[in-house]
Amino acid sequence: MTNYPFLSYRLLHFKAQLVDMNIVILDDYQDTIRKLACASRLEPFSAKVYTNNVKGISQLVFRLKDADILVLNHGRTQITRQILEKLPKLKLIIQIGLVGPHLDLDACTSAGIAVIEGHESPTATAEFTWALIMSAMRRLSQYVGMLKHGGWQQSGLKRAAMPANFALGCRLAGKTLGIWGYGRIGSLVAHYGKCFNMHVLVWGSDASRKKAADAGHDVAQSREELFKESDVLSLHLRLGENNRRIVKLDDLSLMKNTSLFVNTANAELVDTDALVCALNRGCPGLAAVDVFDSEPILQGHALLRLENTICTPHIGSVDQESYETHFCAAFDHIVNFTEGKPLPILNPQALQFRQIKG
């Protein structure tokens, strides 16, 4: 876990008052935040919780214009320099989950806006990934959908290009589970694979491969081997400038026509057009996707139209336990901020800019 400097706004002589604090929480799509056990901590404050999102910058700025504190729910809303420049009252952003490309951290710093980063929910995402793998490999989504329309023991997967008996689904035992990225989530998924008697094959950075080897897993000799050998290939990379759209058509085309490609990590790791093309060609045979380039996705999205794809609405890290943990911590930060107590600031330079601006 990253250690951040604990710094206090008390030093800057603008200790906040409870009655003056305006808090905005964005993108509570499932309308859960006010129902959390820890929500009572918000009662002393003026807090607005939005359950829908807006696309236009002007609409978003209107929502945020009076905010002193902004709570971002994962990466559901892009906060750019252009937006931050229109929010002179904003002093603190609390990120649920990890800070990513959706938040311009440099712009926050130069605007004197402190940022507090949350943490991952490795168990929630790993368990969800495994649920997708099991559902896809046994064609559960397709069978359930057909049953609701009167189809008994019919998965609906009948495209001529599919392998013989592809619609039946298959077991996991004895299959090869490919893991690209052996971090906190990837290592849990690998462990689940072992528990299901799968052969685990790992690829990633030098450090990632060494960690996997030390844990007793096989390490792929190349990226190409990972794609060729995997019956299930699951991405678990953290997005950075060096791996944006790293999964391309050439990679996907190496996969078997019976294999499953899984992405619960980040949509921008994958060339989406290439994934659609590869699935239409039949290699890989299936995909399970929880993350999309633009969210919420539109009904006509190409992946939603494919019969050999399971799409879920970016809920991999969302469960009751993680929400209680994440928002409890966020609300504690809000209370500590208003009381001038030290906070784990991700960008301590922001306090200097705030002091200079007065």
From TrEMBL:
UniProt-listed Gene3D superfamilies: NAD(P)-binding Rossmann-like Domain
Boundaries of every D-isomer specific 2-hydroxyacid dehydrogenase catalytic domain copy: 42-343
Domain named D-isomer specific 2-hydroxyacid dehydrogenase NAD-binding: residues: 131-316
Keywords tagged on the record: NAD, Oxidoreductase, Pyruvate
Any GO molecular function: hydroxypyruvate reductase [NAD(P)H] activity
Domain of life: Bacteria
Database matches in Pfam families: 2-Hacid_dh, 2-Hacid_dh_C
InterPro entries: D-2-hydroxyacid_DH, D-isomer_2_OHA_DH_cat_dom, D-isomer_DH_NAD-bd, NAD(P)-bd_dom_sf
EC number: 1.1.1.81
Similarity annotation: Belongs to the D-isomer specific 2-hydroxyacid dehydrogenase family.
Protein name: Hydroxypyruvate reductase
Protein species of origin: Saezia sanguinis
